[in-house]
Amino acid sequence: MIYEKLSFGRRSIYDLEGFKPLNLDEKKVRELCRGVKVDEEGVKRLEAGSERFKRLFLTRKLTAPPTYEVVERDMRGLEIHNYTGLCPTNVLEINPVEGSCSASCLYCLVSDGDQQKPIKVIGNYPEIVRQELRVRKDENVFFYFSPKTEAFSEPLLETGVSHDILRTFIEHYQMHARSRARLFIATKAGRNHLNFENQGESILGLLTRLKGKVQVNGSLGIMPDYLHETLEPNAATFKDRLIALETLQSRGVYACAVLSQPIIPCYLNLDTAENYFCRLAKAGIVNSKPEFLTVNMDNLAIIAQFVNHFDRERMGEFLRDYVGEDNKDHIKQRCRTAPNREISRKGLELIFEAAGRHNVGISICNWVRKELGITEEKTAMAEQSGFKCLGYQTRMFENAI
Fold first, then answer.
1. Does the bond joining 290 to the residue before it have cis omega, within 30 degrees of 0?
2. What is the pLDDT of residues 51-89, one digit of tens each?
């Protein structure tokens, strides 16, 4: 059966006043990137991406479909989370949705900005989690909900699958009080998502029952709020996400860290870093895992359209950070390019400086640490507090002993 999903303040990106698609052909890219030797293949992909953007924008298919269906799947277990082969923490993925994510983030690391696939909620996913928990109860392992979709998206809330996954963990701990398994949630949820009820129980209430066993990390990139609202059209606002984290903290839930990703480098300076970490500190955040926007060139062309619309004077800088010939080997996975290494290093220096002033620790992905030569000294504050790589709080295992 096909269902129409609800909307928690969905914003339209198709009605921006004065917006016109930009054709990033070779001539335009070279003009914008004057002074930089560009990667020829990257330039071709940018042009193809801008043509694709135009088609999707004009047909209103940049964002996920407004419907979803519920399916059953025969799965033997959960996937290990280790994209780069450098992850030191034992992590399993909870991914109860196939196809697009209703949050429709245009920079999505999973879909590369392609939100055209039908949304399919796996209705029996809680049982798959239950079986894996039974097997893993004696291991120090995080269950990551979810690296490939929004954990509290409308389809998962409306079907009760998000609620049932949380109930599965509650039941597991009732049966296995000394289980070493822990739940790690990364989310763009706002207050409406936390308050959504299924069978008389809200997400907030269920997370409260899991306190001590669950870590909730907000997902809050570094970019202007107007870009948050455009590039994340179906997600809660930046302010509302912080309020949601504060609400969880007030209930005793460990919600004191964020994933500061993506960071769009052309918007990062001392003032924006200072403002960002000031907002985090006021909301009780003590740790941040920053990572710059990493995208393939087709997807970069999509994001460039909105940078051009809001901040045309930044377009050249935005593209130059990615398309240089000397940057074409800065690939994290699946042809996703990270920004110029020197730009990234300088950006992280700003972040370390601003975060330090507000007593916010910084965790760094091992791949980023390796690529940019980040020393252990830089992340000592975070690691001494128990935070590792993605921001996993490893001290959560201590209360299982």
1. no
2. 999 999 999 999 999 899 999 999 888 988 765 554 656
pLDDT in tens, 126-162: 999 999 999 999 999 999 999 999 999 999 999 999 9
d(CA 358, CA 351): 11
Contact, 231 vs 303, CB < 8 A?
yes
Average pLDDT over residues 381-400: 88
Measure the CA–CA gap between 118 and 97, rounded to whole angstroms. 10
191-155-102 Cα angle (round to 5): 80
- Name the residue among 140, 149, 66 with its Cα closest to residue 105: 149
> Tokens 């992850």 identify what position?
87
The predicted model gives 282-303 an average pLDDT of 96
The confidence score (pLDDT) of residue 367 equals: 86
Question: ∠358-361-362 over CA atoms, to 5°?
Answer: 120
Phi, psi for 102 (deg, rounded to 5) = -65, -20
Q: How far apart are the C-alpha atoms of 394 and 389, rounded to whole Å? A: 10
Residue 227 CB coordination number (10 Å): 21
DSSP helix/strand/coil, 185: strand
SS3 63: coil
Pairwise CA distance, residues 153 & 302, whole Å: 23
Contacts of 384 (CB under 8 A, 6+ apart): none
